Amino acid sequence: MTIPLDDGQITVSAVELRAARDELQRFLLEYRFGMQEIETKLSILRDEFLLMHEYNPIEHVSSRVKTPDSLVDKVRRKGIDPGFESIRAHITDIAGVRVTCSFTADAYRLFDLLTQQDDITVREVKDYIAAPKPNGYKSLHAIVEVPVFLSTGPMRVPVEVQFRTIAMDFWASLEHKIYYKYDRQVPGRLIDELKDAADNAAALDDRMERLHRELHGPRPPHTLHV
Asked: Beta-strand (E) ranges in 29-188?
């Protein structure tokens, strides 16, 4: 098979293509296993809250592993070497888990409950709830490492975990759709309206948090340090 490139052509055999495909699949499988480990931990927490407590802070959990195309695009954008070791070192959001909560305090509480587990290592935290992005985006991002035990031995896999409220998640989903529709060239009027909607969503979160405290009392302080 001949593959056209910007500066010429290369010829790759079917055997070489299959080998490259299999190597990429094995590489991404490590991240899928790490993602599943985090999902299992969150599922255990959710089941405990449902069975043992009056209130369950987890509304929804979703997850994804980057597609090969998405991974290649990010490698190009970051200008890093395309080798697997370089990708491991420089890209930490290949596997992602999103936790949607009812209230802002729940995001910090679930972060604490997950990251205080002995086999979890926190590599990086970005608190966009306390310090939102200029466009109004709010979410608590954490890069954590979790052990995965394979037939070849244990390895630690980074997983990005995002904690956000229903309102934050709704706004982020809408913002993503708008930017996709306009190919990131969003008119200024819509950008202003998105920021206004983010402020309204934050105000709603604050109001619902106050109502929740009136019903259930104050929350224990979280231990997040950024």
From this structure: 58-65, 95-101, 121-127, 140-150, 153-165
Q: What does the pLDDT look like over 136-156, one tens digit per residue? A: 899 999 999 999 999 889 999
Q: Exposed, middle or buried, 106 (CB in 10 Å: 0-12/13-18/19+)? A: buried
**198 has pLDDT over 70:** yes
Residue 226 pLDDT more than 50?
no
The answer to whether residue 14 scores a pLDDT higher than 60 is: yes
β partners of residue 62: 98
Q: Would residue 160 show up in a list of annotated catalytic residues for this protein?
A: yes
**pTM to 2 decimal places:** 0.82
DSSP code, position 94:
S
Residues whose CB falls within 8 Å of the CB of residue 137, separated by 6 or more in sequence, listed in order: 128, 171, 172, 175, 198
Structural tokens at position 209? 């948090």
Write down the catalytic residue from 160, 175, 209, 214: 160
With contact defined as beta carbons under 8 Å apart, do 163 and 110 qualify? yes
User: What is the Cα–Cα distance from 165 to 139, expressed in whole angstroms?
Assistant: 8
* Residue 4 pLDDT: 46
Q: Three-state SS for 25?
A: helix
